[in-house]
Amino acid sequence: MTAALRAFRSTSAGPVALAVLTLLAVVAVVAPILWGERATALNPATAVLGPSAEHWLGTDRLGRDVLVRTLVATRTSLGLGLLAAAVAALAGLLLGGLVAVLSRRAREAGLRVLDAVLAFPAILVAIIVTLILPEGTASAAVAVGVAGAPAVARIVVTLATAVLARDFVAAAWGLGVGRSRILVRYVLPNIADSLAVSLSVVAGAALVVVSSLSFLGVGVQPPAFDWGGMLSQGVMDMYVTPLAALAPAVMIALAGLAFGLAGEAMARVANPSVWTARRTGRHTALAAGTGTESDALLDVKGLTVTAGAGPGAPAIVSGVDLRVGRGEIVGLVGESGSGKSMTVLAVARLLPYPVESVADALTLDGHDLRAGPGERVRRLLGTRLALVFQNPAACLNPALRLETQLTEVPRTHQGMNRAQARELALAGLRQVRVPEPERRLRQYPHELSGGQRQRATIAMALAGRAGLLLADEPTTALDNTLRRAVLNLFREANAASGTAIVLVSHDLSVVRGLCDRVVVMYAGRVVEEGPTREVIARPLHPYTQALVGSTLTMTTPLDRPLPALDGQPPRPGERQEGCAFVPRCARAEDRCAKERPPLRAYPGARRTACWAVEA
Amino acid sequence: MRILSRLGTMAALLAALLVASFLLLHLVPGDPAVRIAGLNATPEQVAEVRHRLGLDLPLHRQFAEYVMDGLRLDFGRSFRTGEPVTDVIGGSLGVTLRLAAAGITVTMLTGVALGIAMAALTREGRRPGVETAFTTGTSLVGAVPEYVTGAVLALVFAVGLGWLPVAGLADPAGLVLPAVAVSLAPVSVLARVIRVETLAVLAHDYVRTARAKRLHPVIVYGRHVLPNALTSALTVGGLIFAGLLGGAVVIENVFALPGLGSQLVQSVMARDYPVVQAVIMLLGASIVVVNSCVDGALRLLDPRTRAVSS
Q: ipTM > 0.90?
């Protein structure tokens, strides 16, 4: 509880709301005792005056002090608001509880009725309910409470249904515990917290609606008075003494706001995850370095990616070199958190905020990508580089026809007209063997089968005749059949149009079947690279050996447990000066912990970064 | 089939409304005939009133007549003036609908634009200062009731600056302040919903894909983000329309607009039941119809639900 209170105070709104509510409560208690008589004393001689030393906020039509009346009215306004909230809470709890413990079908019917009632503005319902209640000050509050009950009931049903679905309640049902007992003993205690949050908001709304009724003249009746009634009188003399209208208006707004903010602050305490802003985020222009032209399609040198700007920001990727030749398929493998996805996103210049990157060289087809986000770089990235993410089908926008999505790159960047772009899209769909391509173009993504969506996405990625396809775990979310189909499409695109591919995966078996070359990353650095076949057959780096050893293949002996790699890779910011793999390495020596091994070349176009590997 | 079931629900709601407004007269404490005839009326006068209103008939006959009259849009005569209710409220529906239409236009345009702009500015946790300012600002504005906003607006723009008329509809400019007053709170609510919804859309792979295509930001937001964020905007939009009608009831009284709201309040205070019943029917029917239209529009806008209905 104290922790919750501290959390409540630490929200920006919490302390303010608490202070305002406390102040209002004090005024509500004290003001009528101190100034009760002054507030109602008539004095025609001082009617409708502006502010003066005697009457700070002036006087109303009957010569009564506006400030005093506003303060005294706090008790009625606040009291009626709370009464209304209490009625709404009680009635809503009963109604909602009743609906919640009904059988499933009856509950759904009950919910539909509640929703239908909720479509009507509470103030209208409240006005009408005042008609059937006896006249009197409390009636307005009761009417507002009745009008607010369905909203509370709706919240109760939602909260209670979640609790009822839990195992311990199911067990209680099974033991034959009665409905009302379940409601009181099991459900109520579990929804009390969330309900309290909602009720604070309901109290604020109730106060405002009661004031509205009084403002309209169907709420508090003279000689009793509240802020709403004062406001309606003040509005009549608005041209002469605007303060008479403004003072109660400010109080209504203040009280309504304080209740609302208190509710919000309580909600933040109860459910912090919803409210904390997600912190992932921005790609900035890469800093200029000493880039060199090269004949590789993609040439990355000394790429460093940091979580945030500035020298202290933890590095996610450090000094990675990556070269992809034309038509080459390169696999980028490593555990999650090894920096492989960030490397790809840095190349595509799509890093999330606040992640930033710098590189000594970053060229695509000989063009420097580090130059600002100019038209030339945009066109280059739009046409020569394509991306496919984890679930290819999710790359299609559900609200747009395939034609729009498949033609926008050629139309935007290659200056094609609609017919040309359409022809290209059709050719693309035919290439990935989507049946009836003409019809598909007119369809929305949901009208295609899962497999067709995967194919269409790949057709879309290739539509601009991309030279380089960056595929980030493209098969991880797929079942085996779709996985094989997607990999086949990649292979075909590579064979037919010479598309180079960088395939990011944590799964060596995917890489084995597709890639010419494999690059292994660990803790943000490249630890080994070389031709796929050789690297898998004879891994040099201890980490690669562990990775290969933990992969199930046709030749894996099934009578022994699969060797697993113990421990976790270091997180960004925890990495030390030596080799990052030391804590998990069986072959680590003193030197490894002190000095980081450089990436050294070995026969057979292989490179690895390990002191233990002899040349 | 979907449309039929929609129409069925709509009819059921309207019927429920009819029953509720009929029962209103009978739930009122005491004998309505006594109330209408006045406390000093003789028993003969009360009996005469009872007979004139058909209150001496059995309940089911009364309901049958009420329904038949209601279908002919005949709501009887006002207790206050003796005029047919239809004449009494004739012009007021138009005034209220004009106010609500102006309000919903302002709300949808401003709320959606503001919400998307804020999502673009604060996506992925960018500019936390802007986010705090936006959330605080909208909760401030959203917490202030319409009539307070209205009174303050009237004070500033009509009384203080004298730019706009404070009351009446003699001048079309008279609609500006009431429309702004009813819209401010809904705009805050809608902008917040749209921002959150847009942030969710922005996190989808298809938006990342659109970015990867290096489309112009206007295309990314206009073509790829907006349609997906708009579905939720419209769901809330229906609720907002209902809320606007409620707000209009209050705001009409601030700006002295002769709409259904003013009519309702006057009739409730005068216990003029036939007029109250008619106003309930009209406002309720507007809400039911608008919500059904919003549902239909959603179905048209969202290709996924459209496929289900066809």
A: no
